[in-house]
Amino acid sequence: MTPEKHQKKIAVINDLSGYGRCSLTVVIPILSALKIQCCPVPTSILSNHTGFPTYFFDDYTEKMPMYIEEWKKLHLTFDGIYSGFLGSEAQIQIVIDMIKEFGTKEGRVIIDPIMGDHGKAYQTYTPQMCSRMKELVGYGNIVTPNLTEACILTGREYQKEGFRRNELIQMAEEIRELGPDAVVITGVKEGSFVTNVVLEADGTHHFIRTRHVGNERPGTGDVFSSIIAAYAVHGASLRDGVRKAADFVKECILKSDELNVPVENGVCFEELLSLLIRHR
């Protein structure tokens, strides 16, 4: 009998927004392009993301345990678990429980601690939720906070620019002290560049820069972290994953501006998926 060949699978906990290119509508095609089967665990269902003036929203918190219970009955296993936006403290606990249930020594856990941006926590994120997010971060192999979230996790006062590089390294080290193996602080502005601060599991660090281009758009963090998750599950280096993610996000922003895609519609990454497919 021919042995079964194994395809990599990642369980992805995130919301599903029907319009606006963010969360699962970004994660699923990005992972697919990188030869990963995406297995979604929806946290909520939205007609479109909340950056639009009106939207439909259905919270999935009460249904998540029943959903996950069926996976337990099927004895499913995953090569990675990737957590994105969570809408409540109860969902944070559900994800912690899921990592305990489905996490393995060989698997990778990627936590994108989506709590805020531009120096402010999202309205849904209470101080208690931010504290619980610190606990969840401790279960990750790789965590990918933006600068705002890194400041929340470390209790620092946010500043848009001006952090010295030794301060950024110290911030990453303090996040790693919460428990994760490696940390990537994303989207740090340094003049005309955007820098990603990478702290490896062995304590080495890198600064990976791309030139700042175009408009800031929703969903770019989902694109970035999805590439990081795929590279991690494939066993590639974190540094290579961050470089590819940064370059790809830059090209997506440029293409979106070229096509005059409205900012609230996110990045038209579909136009450039061939870049990921060729590179994989």
Automatic annotation (TrEMBL):
Output one GO MF annotation.
pyridoxal kinase activity
What does the record give as EC number?
A: 2.7.1.35
Q: What sort of enzyme, by top EC class, is this? A: transferase
Write out the entry's keywords from A to Z: ATP-binding, Kinase, Nucleotide-binding, Thiamine biosynthesis, Transferase
**Annotated ranges, domain Pyridoxamine kinase/Phosphomethylpyrimidine kinase:** 80-259
- Coiled-coil ranges (or none): none
> Keyword Methyltransferase: yes or no?
no
| NCBIfam families (UniProt xref) | PRK07105.1 (NF005491)
Protein name as it appears in the record = pyridoxal kinase
